Structures are given as C-alpha cells and as structure tokens.
Amino acid sequence: MTAVLDHGGHAHGHDHAHDHPHGWRRWLFATNHKDIGTLYLLFSFTMLLIGGVLALGIRAELFKPGLQLVNPELFNQLTTMHGIIMVFGAIMPAFVGMANWMLPLQIGASDMAFARMNNFSFWLMIPASIIIVASFFMPGGAPAAGWTLYAPLTLQMGPSMDAAIFAMHIMGASSIMGSINIVVTILNMRAPGMTLMKMPMFAWTWLITAYLLIAVMPVLAGAITMTLTDRHFGTSFFNPAGGGDPVMYQHIFWFFGHPEVYIMILPAFGIVSQIVPAFARKKLFGYHSMVYATASIAILSFIVWAHHMFATGMPVTGQLFFMYATMLISVPTGVKVFNWIATMWRGSMTFEVPMLWSVGFIFVFTMGGFTGLICSVAPIDTQIQDTYYVVAHFHYVLVAGSLYALYAGFYYWAPKWTGVMIPEWKGKVHFWLSLITFNVTFFPMHFLGLAGMPRRYADYPMQFADFNAIASVGAFGFGLMQVYFLFVVLIPAMMGKGEPAPQRPWEGAEGLEWEVPSPAPFHTFEEPPKLNADATRVVG
C-alpha cells in the first residue's frame, strides 16, 4: 500500500502497475486525459485515411476527361462524404486529441475537469463515424448534396441523408461536451501562479476555439434539423413551393460554417506558436498581440458568413459589408504571421522536423490566406465561385494549415507521448515529399479555376486535361506519403522502437509539459506544481 499512499513530493506521479486498468478496460472505460487523447488521435488518423481514399477516388476519375471509374452520382457522393469525413471525422477530432493530451500537462492540471464526460464525448464519435461511412451502402447511396448539404438537393436525397443528419447531431453533441470540458479545465484547473496571460498559446487558442464550438454547433444542429423536418414532417423552411427559401439554409449553414473554418485553424496557430519559439530559441514575439489577434479572429468570424454567398443575388450593401468584414479578418491573421516571422528573426534557428512542418505551415498557409483575400472581393468571387480556384484555396488553408500543424504537433510532442525519439530522416522524408506532392496536387487547381473549371463535376472539356492529370498524380503521391507516415513513423513510435527520449527532447522548448518524464506517466501533477515567475518551469 505504501506505493499508493506515498504522495509526498510526487507531483510528477510514479507509475504503479495497480493504479490504472489494463487491457481493453483501460481503453473502453478510459477517463485519463492521455488515453482519451490517444484514442482521439488514432480515430482521427483512421478517418483521415478513409477520407483520403475517397479523395483519391475523385482524383482518379478526374485524371483524364470522360467518365472512367464512377458515374456522376457516385462522384458527388465521393465529394460530399470526403468533405464531411475530413472536417468532422479527421481535423476536428485530431485537434481535440491534441487538446486532451497537452492542455492538462501545459497548465499543470491533474486531468480534464469532467473525466467521464470526456470518455463519453469520444465514444460518441464511433457510432457517428460508422453511420457516416455506412451511408454508402444504404438504398440510393451516400448523400450527394456537397459537404455543405444545401437545400433543395438535401430534400431529394435517399435515406442516407437522414443517417448523415443523425450522425452529425451526435458529432455535434460530442464537440459541445468536449468544448465545455476544455473551457472548465482551462478556467478552473490551472496551477497556482499561472494567470491567463501566462498560459501557453496552445491553451489560449483552444480556450477561444471551445467557445466558438459552443456558439456554433447548435446553429448547425438547427439547420440540419430544419432539413429533416422539411424531408419528413411537412414543413417548408427551404422548399419554395411551400413558401420557404433555399438561400435561408445557406445563411444558417454558413453562420455555423465560417466560424467552423476558424475552429479548424486556431488550434493550429496555437501549435505553431509553441514550436517556432522552441526552435528559434527565443520567446514568442508579441505574446499579448497573439492572444488579442486570436480573440479578434474569433469575434470577426461571426460577421463574415455571407462571403460564401456573393453569387446568390445579395444587395450591393450586403456585398460591401461582407467584403470589408472579410478583408478585416485578414489583419489579425497577418499579425500572427508577422509575429511568427519576428520570432524567427535573428533567432538561433535549427530545423528539426517539428520546425520544418511549422515553417511549411506558415509558407503554404499564407498562400492560402492570400487566395482567400482574393475571394473576399465580391466581383472577383462572382467569377470564381464554385470553381477549382476555391477548391485550391481551402485545401491550402485546411491541408497545409490544419494538417501540417497537426503533423508539427505530433513530431514535437511524440517523444513525450511515446518515450522514444522519432529519427529525423523519417520525418524529413515525410515532410519534404508531402510538401512537394501537396503543391503538385493543389497549385494547378488555381489555374483550372481561373480558366473556369467548376467544382463537383465528374467530367470536363479537353482544355483542362493537363492540369488535372498533374493534380491527380500529385494526389496519389500525397496519399502515399501518409501511408508512409503510418507504417514508417507512427507504428514504430507507438511500439516504442527508437532511442529513448529525454525529459526535454528539444533544447529551446519551454512549458510545463517538459517538466514530466518521457513518456509522460499515467498520473501527472497529482499535487499542483509550484511555478517560476513566467509559469514555464516547476520550482523546487
């Protein structure tokens, strides 16, 4: 018994064989934030691979003009399900997994505030994702209304549409519970001495993201519930024959959808804001301005939704308002990019794998940001609306934004998770080939869009053939690199193969997460740590 009772001075926790469940019970009934974080990350990577296979189906069909592999109906099912799976199944749960793993370690908390609710919010994802994937096998196939689920298409779909609505309700409930957990944990469980303005940027970005999620997930729930009642209960919210308006659906959806875009990028900003100072060996430039910029982006994200709708016949006053508001949101985003570059300026820079992914993120995300700024100009957007230019823009923001930052975070924190160092050459192969194949895939899409190639079409005229062939080859290369990551990087690291990681594997890394051993013990900070003045180290 002495091992269990002996808490004196063991704020870092010593692992004892009997203080946590083993085998399948440990994972099914998991209440430890690290286990749940691991479950989220593995789940999201699985969904990334499934969504990626659907994307490769799209690119294989578009390799040359004509219909090769799938008919237009199945093609639209692929585009719809690729979008839904990537947004709700891959990117969002991956960031929640990062939050579960790292937030308690970063703020000196023993665990998340609501451990059982944490378990529940993860396991809700499993039936929801099964329902989503199974919709391909329902009568009439999967939903084919685009990931935005626009009426009137949604009112004409088969039973799989109801399944998708149900699954998205479940995922929304999971997101709201996870967000409440994150807010309460950050506001109530910080170690003494860690004021809000001493928190790591990752904690700040997640606090703001969690508030965004709580605000907008019910809006999505409202939009899809109205779709459901239109389909089955005789209402006419979006049916013009009964006095409804399909454009109203777009307003409601994008009031959710635009903050959602920032939900998928703000935690990425947080991860990069942790990594750049570590490898520049300098404090983050303009910490306070970073916090205010993050909050500004969140607030402004609520007043820009209709820039997705410039082509719906909006009055000029509305177009001008949403155009200027959208341009305004690029200012705090620019502040962040400036701060990252200023942090690197005259720093003692080294380019280990996490830093490579972060610099790649800044470079390619900024390109995606500029194309977004171009889309914000109403007369230009009217020309490029629903073309491949828009597809190129949001993949630069979401793949090169969210996904690159997730990989940066993985390579940065994996030594703390697994206890082993990932060999640099493995990560560098993954990074460079991913960067090259990503750009080969999506850069030509800008030219396709400017030349007028529309989205969501299974066939196209001959003049678009060359760029489409290049994009398809790049896409298969990019997909191959993620399979490489699975077998060469992820599985060996999870099996503990590699040289043991020191407690502080990166020389310039600051923060409480580097005060616990590698791998992080099952229980950490059972007693709140005593912090130094800038809340980055444990004193004593």
From TrEMBL:
It catalyses: 4 Fe(II)-[cytochrome c] + O2 + 8 H(+)(in) = 4 Fe(III)-[cytochrome c] + 2 H2O + 4 H(+)(out). It is found in: Cell membrane; Membrane. It is a multi-pass membrane protein. Residues 521-540 are annotated as: Disordered. Keywords: Cell membrane, Copper, Electron transport, Heme, Iron, Membrane, Metal-binding, Oxidoreductase, Respiratory chain, Translocase, Transmembrane, Transmembrane helix, Transport. The chain crosses the membrane at residues 39-60, 80-101, 122-145, 165-189, 201-224, 291-310, 322-342, 354-380, 392-413, 429-449, 469-494. GO terms for biological process: electron transport coupled proton transport; oxidative phosphorylation; respiratory electron transport chain. Gene3D superfamilies: Cytochrome c oxidase-like, subunit I domain (1.20.210.10). Residues 27-532 form the Cytochrome oxidase subunit I profile domain. Its main location: membrane. It is an enzyme of class 7 (translocase). GO terms for cellular component: plasma membrane; respiratory chain complex IV. NCBIfam families: CtaD_CoxA. Cytochrome c oxidase is the component of the respiratory chain that catalyzes the reduction of oxygen to water. Subunits 1-3 form the functional core of the enzyme complex. CO I is the catalytic subunit of the enzyme. Electrons originating in cytochrome c are transferred via the copper A center of subunit 2 and heme A of subunit 1 to the bimetallic center formed by heme A3 and copper B. This is Cytochrome c oxidase subunit 1. It comes from Aquabacterium lacunae.
